[in-house]
Each structure stands twice: as C-alpha cells, then as structure tokens.
Amino acid sequence: MDAQTFLRSLEEEILQHDAVQHPFLKRFASDTLSLKQIQIFGLQHYQLVKIFVNYMTNLLPRIPDEDAAELFREVFDDEFGQHTIFRSHPSLYRNFLKGLGLPEESWGRVKFLPETTQYLEAHLELTREADFIYGLGIVGPAHEFAIPTMFNDLITGFKNNLAVDDEDIEYFTCHVVQDEEHALVFNKLITRHVETEANQKLLRDGAMTCLAYRKTFWDGLQRAVFEETISS
User: Fold this and answer.
1) Nearest to 220 by CA among 24, 20, 4
2) Which of 93, 180, 209, 226 has an alpha carbon within 20 to 30 A of 147's alpha carbon?
3) Residue 226 to residue 38: CA distance in whole angstroms
C-alpha cells in the first residue's frame, strides 16, 4: 500500500491498541481517586517525561534527510519551552507535581516500578541502536500520535478528583494539542521512507514495540495505584 494509506491504517490500529485503551486509563478516568493514588501515578510518569527528548537526540543524527534537524526543531521548541526553560515540558510537569503537594526532594527519591525501569532502558537502547525507521515508529506514531488519546483519560481523572487550576495540569492539556501537531511533523519524515513493504513493517514494528512497553508501564501503574494502595 502507499505511504499515506499505510500511515492511516497504522494510526487506526494504534487507537485500538491495548496500551491506548488500557484499563488503567479507563479506571483513572472513572474511579474516585485519592491524592495518594494520583501522587503515585505522577511520580512514576515523571520519569518518562523528563527523558523523552533523549529519544529524539538519539535518533536525529542517524536520519539521512537534510531537513530532519529543521523538522525536529519544531518539536524541540515545544519540548524545551522555546524562549524560557520555565515553559519546558519537564518544568510544566513539575508544576503538576507541586500542585499535588509533592515537595521537590521527593521527585528525585522515587523508587521506580520495575515496569518504569524496563520502559526507560528499552527506549533509550532502541532509539540509540535500532534502524532510524524503527525509531521513527517509536517517537512518531507510538508517542506523538498516541499520547493525546491516552492523556484525555488522565485529564478526566484529574478534573474529577482534584481541585486544580488549569495551570497545574497544563503539561497534559498542552500535549493533547501539541502532540497532534508533532505527529504531523514526524509523518512528513515517515512518508518518505515507508513506500516499501519492508520499511512499513520496520516502522510498524517500532511503534508496536513501543506500545507494548507502554502497556506494561500502565500494567505496573494499575497494580501500584489500584491494588497496592488499596491493600496498604
């Protein structure tokens, strides 16, 4: 199939993936949550947030397109906050942690869930070592395209259970908008490289591997947030 048809098919598949429609997300959106439960989520998820740009910097030097850096710049500008570090995505996320009443010293003393460690180590290795087309599947369809759908469930949970200002959850709300735009940026690169069946498989394999790790990450959070906190 041609590149555009392939991408549309892949995106439809992603929207139905177990990671994107995970029971953790559905429970987070519908259950009554304690502050402790949301804090557990917030600290584990922060570990993914603060390292995402590393995946992009791992991948960029291996992309052969002359304009790859220019295209990535659009995403980097948002990730780094453009003109001020106080608007960087990690900074916005730390505002969220502050809104949860978590002191700064707690951010660096997080005991990682095994699933969190597995997710981080795998993504750093894959974006550094795997074929760049495989890597584009990770940072494009499996991250930028998938995140707005997953984050909508999280935002619903925050609004149902927290007395938060819009600024407190801006990290999440801005991603619903920005990541749709970022997905289009990555698609500009992707469509150049997925005209063949072999490259389409390579890109899809990257996306599906990433989503499998995301599902496992949500599995860990479901246990920590809904099972361990109830029994403790």
Assistant:
1) 24
2) 226
3) 10
CB 112 within 8 A of CB 43: no
CB 147 within 8 A of CB 15: no
pLDDT in tens, 21-75: 999 999 999 999 999 999 999 999 999 998 888 998 999 999 999 998 888 887 7
If you average pLDDT over every residue of the chain, what do you get?
Answer: 90
Which domains are delineated in the chain? 3-231 (1.20.910.10)
Query: Are residues 178 and 78 in contact, defined by beta-carbon separation less than 8 angstroms?
Result: yes
Token representation of residue 98 = 């502050």
- The CB-side HSE value for 195 (13 A sphere, CA atoms) comes to 4
Q: Could you tell me the pLDDT band of residue 199, with boundaries at 50, 70 and 90? A: very high
Q: Assess contact for 117 and 215: CB atoms under 8 A.
A: no
Q: Which residue type, as a one-letter code, is found at position 9?
A: S
The rounded distance, in Å, linking the Cα atoms of 63 and 55 is: 13
Q: Give residue 41's region: left, alpha or beta (phi > 0; psi -120 to 50).
A: alpha
pLDDT digits (tens, 9 = 90+) for 147-169: 999 999 999 999 999 887 888 89
Contact 195, 124 (CB under 8 A): no
